[in-house]
Specification:
little secondary structure, 3-stranded antiparallel beta sheet, two-stranded antiparallel sheet, 1 helix, elongated
């Protein structure tokens, strides 16, 4: 999967969120802006912003980031629910969700956006550092507010599934529901 798009930033002189597997949220700009574009089959767009607002939420694997018109940050889009996609409960993750979008940073002391389910980090409010994306989820980092830099996204994960008993090697191996899962959180 492609990496996610970075969020818009005043410091980097980039107002619109970047494109990627999921799109980054944008920062306020004259006339408003759409979020960064996601990639079909991998993720969703970041949220849009108005001229005077907080930062919008980053897109997640399961939904777009929240568009924003007020001074709070937008919520990150929900990640992909592997329980639903695979129609079986596995022990490959705490919740089964991956690649949640990062929350947008708030304007001054307003409320930062929540990270999307699946490892997305929370956006900042004034004098509060945003939260990084959770490790091994591919979740987006939370956006910075008026004075804080945005946080990093979480490291990714690779899960390989095949029907039947174990025939491959590598990673953390789990057998569940007639399938074998190999989970990799580092090179292997």
């Amino acid at each position: 999967a492609l990496g996610g798009g970075g969020g818009g930033s005043y410091n980097a002189n980039q107002a619109q969120g970047g494109s990627g597997g999921s799109g980054g949220g944008s920062r306020p700009a004259p006339g408003g802006l759409p979020g960064g574009a996601g990639t079909s089959g991998q993720g969703n767009d970041g949220g849009s912003v108005d001229a005077d607002s907080g930062g919008s939420g980053g897109g997640g694997a399961g939904a777009a980031g929240q568009s924003i018109t007020g001074f709070d940050g937008g919520n990150g889009g929900i990640g992909l629910n592997t329980y639903s996609a695979w129609a079986t409960a596995t022990s490959t993750g705490d919740s089964g969700y991956y690649a949640g979008g990062g929350g947008g940073g708030a304007y001054l002391s307003n409320t930062g956006g929540s990270g999307g389910t699946g490892g997305g980090g929370a956006g900042s409010t004034q004098n509060v550092v945003p939260t990084a994306g959770s490790a091994n989820t591919g979740g987006g980092g939370g956006g910075g507010g008026s004075y804080e830099a945005g946080a990093n996204g979480g490291r990714g994960i690779v899960i390989i599934r095949y029907a039947g008993s174990q025939i491959g090697t590598g990673g953390t191996v789990v057998e569940s529901g007639g399938y074998t899962y190999h989970t990799f959180t580092s090179s292997g």
